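Hi R.,

As promised on Friday, here is the backbone we talked about, encoded as structure tokens. Could you run it through your design pipeline when you get a chance and send me back a sequence?
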């Protein structure tokens, strides 16, 4: 038995750093930031950002000012910390806001990134405000533009016509604006053509091992491994049901392993009947419903299974992208929902 019957999440910081370096090599001479919003996609903003800073990363993006303030305490002075959602009127002298409208610009003094909406209709200056600013750059007022930035909406679909359109619009409008560095590609954008290069790419997902080129081999190194211990083994007869709703019934004499992980740990209920765990090098199908703290596996064909053994749930046999696809979502959501109850082990770079 393990002494601590909790799931273990292993995060390979060396792999994060190698992923960042790979993206740097692709994007040179442009720089590459690290998007560490939502606690570095659930992996831990402090250890991830520290490792990347030590590797030479100078630009970090978060969504909320509170995330940025916490990150500043971790990183110390020096690196740029940009807040994608802006400051909402509050003052954060240690952070750089991303300004998303002419009203944001009018309300701010000093350095800032300025987000230009080139086709996502989400955040950023909409087309009429872009036009007004390009026609009358004095509307920048007391704002000193650090970067003109825009965000791709379909970068994970290389053939989507909106990619080229956004590149065209970004080039056209930034040529009319006062000169400042430009920030364009996210993870998938780094794998599109040269027109998506800029002074600063902003990848998140690819740093954490998600595939920026869906449908093609993943160029990134895996970062996350999740193992949860077997709490109990139970031998049941054909016809015996397992779990809530008696959704699954044994068809043969069956050994069931009950594992300490559930939907409260971010393992989606939608995975019922879909995933496998890896145990002693063999795959065990997950059977029955996902409950709050427990899931069950058919380990009949793995005679070595024993209480305390770690069942691998995320790893090379089943990566976060694959789990997302099985759950009807994306790897991003699987990572950002990873629970707070795991023991987290960070492998130093
Ligand atoms: C989240 C985000 C990114 C990072 O996107 P990935 O697909 O994870 O690389 C970049 N830019 C903006 C504006 C974002 O919101």
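Update: got your reply. Pasting your designed sequence below so it's all in one thread:
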């Amino acid at each position: 038995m393990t002494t601590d019957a909790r799931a273990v999440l292993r995060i390979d910081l060396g792999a994060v750093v190698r992923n960042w370096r790979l993206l740097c090599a692709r994007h040179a001479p442009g720089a590459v930031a690290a998007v560490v919003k939502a606690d570095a996609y659930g992996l831990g903003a402090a250890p991830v950002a520290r490792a990347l800073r030590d590797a030479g990363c100078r630009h970090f993006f978060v969504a909320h000012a509170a995330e940025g303030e916490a990150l500043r305490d971790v990183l110390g002075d020096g690196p740029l910390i940009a807040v994608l959602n802006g400051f909402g009127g509050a003052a954060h002298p240690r952070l750089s806001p991303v300004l998303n409208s002419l009203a944001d610009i009018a309300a701010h003094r000093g350095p800032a990134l300025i987000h230009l909406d080139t086709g996502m209709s989400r955040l950023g200056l909409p087309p009429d405000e872009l036009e007004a600013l390009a026609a009358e750059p004095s509307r920048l007022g007391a704002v000193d533009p650090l970067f003109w930035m825009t965000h791709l909406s379909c970068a994970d679909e290389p053939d989507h016509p909106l990619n080229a359109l956004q590149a065209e619009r970004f080039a056209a409008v930034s040529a009319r604006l006062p000169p400042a560095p430009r920030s364009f590609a996210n993870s998938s954008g780094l794998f599109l053509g040269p027109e998506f290069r800029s002074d600063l790419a902003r990848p998140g997902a690819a740093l954490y091992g998600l595939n920026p080129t869906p449908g093609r081999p993943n160029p990134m190194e895996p970062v996350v491994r999740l193992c949860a211990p077997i709490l109990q083994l139970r031998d049941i007869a054909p016809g015996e049901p397992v779990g809530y709703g008696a959704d699954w019934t044994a068809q043969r004499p069956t050994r069931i392993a009950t594992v300490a992980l559930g939907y409260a740990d971010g393992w989606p209920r939608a995975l019922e009947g879909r995933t496998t765990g890896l145990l002693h090098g063999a795959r065990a199908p997950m059977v029955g419903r996902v409950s709050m703290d427990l899931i069950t596996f058919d380990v009949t064909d793995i005679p070595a299974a024993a209480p305390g053994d770690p069942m691998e749930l995320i790893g090379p046999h089943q990566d976060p992208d694959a789990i997302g696809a099985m759950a009807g979502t994306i790897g991003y959501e699987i990572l950002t929902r990873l629970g707070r109850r795991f023991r987290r082990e960070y492998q130093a770079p």
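One thing I noticed while checking it: Residues 53 and 260 are 35 Å apart (CA to CA).

Thanks again,
M.
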